[in-house]
Amino acid sequence: MTRPAILNPQAVPVTAVDGHLPAVADGSLTPASLRERFASPPSWQVEIPGDGGLFANRPPAAAAVLVPLVMHEQGLHLLLTRRTDHLRDHAGQISFPGGRVEPEDGNAIATALRETEEEIGLAGRNIEVIGELPVYVTVTGFHVTPVVALVQPDIELQLDAFEVAEAFEVPLAFLMNPANHRRHRFEYAGGERSFLSMPWTSLDEQGLPREYFIWGATAAMLRNFYRFLSA
């Protein structure tokens, strides 16, 4: 099935907010608790395995992303990036650092670590990989393995200006609370598409509020992470 791209997701109507679902308890969002959860995973089901039909006829490609959880004293924060506007895939969108698997990569972890260092300058010596989430299939044909890791705080990043416009952090507790998960429905000739968003507002350098619209594959993988932690 061929589908059009969603060019302005913020304008797509919100159909529901999942405030009826419980948030992951704060005690489950600590480094020790996450290590234990991945070491002895529960029985659970992936809620969103992928975006569905492709909007472009492309052969499938393996990819991996890092889900970097920065260990601040006040709690874990997820480090995300905003892609530059000129990229071919997912331009301007909020994403995890990561990319396509290369022949020299031994596994998904190697890909995620290599891409993370290339994109934002975060070296593997500052990263503790604790597990993986199930593969997610994007609308652009990528089969993405999310690699979850703990990251040392106070790390200086060096962004690849060609791919990454900026990097920012969001409290993990915010993302693991479904009261912040919005459902959207995009209608087009011949069908419709549903997606989640998790808009995060922070202050810019001038102290003014700025919204980061987390949606699409990034939001879907975070929703699967929520299901894993709340199982």
Notes on the protein architecture:
The two termini are 33 Å apart. The chain has one domain: Alpha-Beta Complex (Nucleoside Triphosphate Pyrophosphohydrolase). The model has no long low-confidence stretch (mean pLDDT 91). With 231 residues, it is of the alpha+beta class. It is globular, with a radius of gyration of 17 Å. Strands 2, 3, 4, 5, 6, 7, 8 and 9 form an 8-stranded mixed β-sheet that branches. Strands 1-10-11 form a 3-stranded antiparallel β-sheet.
Estimated structural class: alpha+beta
**Which stretches are poorly predicted, pLDDT < 50 over at least 5 residues?**
none
The chain-level mean pLDDT equals 91
Principal-axes geometry comes out as globular
Distance between the termini: 33 Å
**Percent of residues in β-strands:** 25-35%
Supply the CATH architecture. Alpha-Beta Complex
The largest β sheet comes out as: 8 strands, mixed
What's the helix-strand series?
EHEEEEHEEEEHEEEEH
Helix content: 10-25%
Summarize the structure.
With 231 residues, the protein is α+β, with helices and mostly antiparallel strands.
Topology (elements, then pairings):
Elements: E1 14-17, H1 31-39, E2 61-72, E3 75-83, E4 94-95, E5 98-100, H2 108-120, E6 127-132, E7 136-137, E8 142-151, E9 164-171, H3 172-175, E10 182-188, E11 191-197, E12 200-203, E13 209-212, H4 216-230
Parallel strand pairs: 2-8
Antiparallel strand pairs: 1-10, 2-3, 2-5, 3-4, 3-9, 6-8, 7-8, 10-11, 12-13
